[in-house]
UniProtKB/TrEMBL annotation:
InterPro entries: DedA_domain (IPR051311), VTT_dom (IPR032816)
Protein known as: DedA family protein
Domain VTT: 30-159
Bilayer topology annotation: Multi-pass membrane protein
Organism: Massilia jejuensis
Pfam families found in the cross-reference section: VTT_dom
Domain of life: Bacteria
Keywords linked to the UniProt accession: Cell membrane, Membrane, Transmembrane, Transmembrane helix
Main location: membrane
Length: 211
């Protein structure tokens, strides 16, 4: 996995960094915690430019957040939750996740977008309440961009600084990265196979039970 990703980034360059980070925000095939440190390794080897990698990673992260932002803004809360539940078997976001993210946004507002981009898992979900709360596109791009730049910068710096121990680190990172990817794939397969629709309470029964 280590060699595969670093070689892929070395060959695809900044477009590869952008694409992987965008996909990671829409549907995480490979987490950013693996993408950007590996990009840092590639920069340290001299194959890519540090500033360009940071810009590509940040732009990809923000671009990947936009589909959820626009979906939330144009669909609205109830329609988006219905969509999430209707395709809950295949999606990684449920109606309950949307409610949780919206509550956090209502409590913290713009700070939720800025700092939410620094937290794994929340990074994608925070785009939903920003859209539902009708945050302007300009503000969303600003706060999301700042948070994404800080996150990608931290991860890239970690990979860049460890370049002197490239081979030693690879011996540890490679099996760990394979284990993480395998666990994510296994979790998703199990989720799809074992998923069951939540029981729906008959509205007429609710009315009878209501005093």
């Amino acid at each position: 996995m280590f060699e595969f990703i670093t070689e892929f980034l070395g060959k695809s360059g900044y477009l590869g960094v952008f694409a992987l980070m965008a996909l990671e925000n829409i549907f995480p095939p490979i987490p950013s915690e693996m993408i950007m440190p590996f990009a840092g390794f590639v920069v340290a080897r001299g194959d890519l430019n540090l500033v360009s990698v940071l810009l590509a990673g940040t732009a990809g992260s923000v671009a990947g957040a936009l589909p959820w932002y626009y979906a939330a803004r144009f669909y609205g809360c109830e329609r988006l939750k219905h969509l999430a539940d209707h395709h809950a078997r295949w999606l990684t976001v449920s109606a309950d996740d949307i409610d949780t993210a919206l509550a956090a946004f209502r409590k913290h507002g713009r700070k939720a977008v800025l700092f939410g981009r620094l937290i794994p898992a929340v990074r994608t979900l925070i785009s939903v309440p920003a859209g539902l709360g009708n945050m302007s596109l300009g503000r969303f791009l600003l706060y999301s961009g700042i948070g994404s730049l800080a996150w990608t910068g931290l991860l890239t710096a970690a990979g860049f600084l460890m370049e002197n121990n490239y081979r030693e680190v690879a011996d540890y990172v490679d099996p760990v990265s394979k284990a993480i990817f395998g666990a994510m794939l296994a979790w998703y397969v199990v989720r799809v196979v074992t998923w069951r629709a939540p029981a729906k309470t008959d509205s007429r029964e609710q009315e009878r039970d209501t005093p």
